[in-house]
Amino acid sequence: MTWTAPELQPTRTLVGADERPMLQSWLDFHRQTLLGKCGGLDGEQLATRSVEPSSLSLLGLVRHLTDVERGWFRTSAAGEEIEPVYGTEAEPDADFDDVAALPADEVFAAFHAEVAACDAAVAALSLDHVFHVPWRSDDYTLRWVYLHMIEEYARHNGHADLLRERIDGVTGSF
């Protein structure tokens, strides 16, 4: 089965907009970009590894970002006591490993559900909301999380560009 990406919405120019809508717009743009890089591929193609010994794949990136979203927005910023979707203490890289174990449609459904849950979890929090991350021994703000997530997606979207080109030669924006 081939996965169909959503239509990529152009990023609106938010010059002069408030900071929160600007940050949310850029995060949403990068979320959509990742999904666009996965569009039109079947499960086997989505699970294709970059090069040995790397376990990097498009499906692994979607799984990884599902866990990263959950970890920063829901577990850290919102203080929810929930486990990662894929990673475990015993297998911290499970998001990239064994990507063929779940059908791609289930991975994308989990991603969409997590994004919606993350957005809802922090909707009422101020960008200045401060929280402590014990595994990092530091305090962070929600503003920092938005900036970090935009950076995280931008970096991994670069990986997705290369992976997609390796799979079927497709390059460019989606």
TrEMBL record:
Superkingdom of this protein's organism: Bacteria
Gene3D superfamilies on file: dinb family like domain
Protein name in the entry: Uncharacterized protein DUF664
Organism of this sequence: Nocardia alba
